[in-house]
Design brief:
Distance between the termini: 19 Å
Structural class: alpha+beta
Number of domains: 1
Largest sheet: 7 strands, antiparallel
Order of helices and strands: EEEEHHEEE
Number of helices: 2
Length: 158
């Protein structure tokens, strides 16, 4: 996986007990397909409500292996309605966004934002609504979640 663009912008401040919700817009599109290899482009845009921070991550992921394994990674998880490949993409993107959030002194997105049942965090602690729309060679994902992170911030990083 390769991140080609990463940005974090601090938009405002967070008061102490205020809940932060993350809105996610994600896009996954197939760019190249060969025997036993698929290259997909992705973009993630995370905004908070209230407006505290915005993260943008773009890049490519290369899936290699048997065609059946690759097709399985591109399928949608029936529980989360998110393609399996996005689990791997989000793990790497999360690490980058976490580092930027530390520099900007803003709340980081939850590590399990798109996959709340996988990390041991009770599902009732995270409000997630995920919608996936499959378009020829593209997938769009939207999610919203609540987080109890308490931080403040202001900066731009490109």
């Amino acid at each position: 996986m390769e991140i080609t663009s990463l940005a974090g912008v601090r938009l405002g401040f967070k008061s102490g007990a205020e809940t932060v919700n993350f809105d996610v817009k994600a896009k996954l599109e197939e760019r190249e397909r060969k025997s036993q290899m698929v290259v997909v482009g992705f973009s993630l845009l995370l905004n908070t409500k209230p407006n505290i921070v915005k993260f943008e991550v773009e890049g490519t992921a290369t899936l290699a292996g048997k065609d059946a394994e690759i097709n399985k990674m591109l399928e949608t998880d029936p529980e989360t309605k998110v393609p399996y490949v996005f689990q791997r993409i989000y793990q790497t993107a999360y690490t980058a966004m976490y580092l930027i959030s530390t520099i900007l002194n803003v709340p980081p997105p939850p590590q399990d934002l798109l996959f709340p049942t996988r990390s041991g965090v009770p599902v009732e602690d995270i409000n997630v609504g995920v919608e996936a729309v499959v378009v020829p060679e593209a997938v769009t994902v939207q999610a919203e979640t609540g987080s109890e992170e308490v931080n403040e911030a202001k900066a731009v990083k490109k």
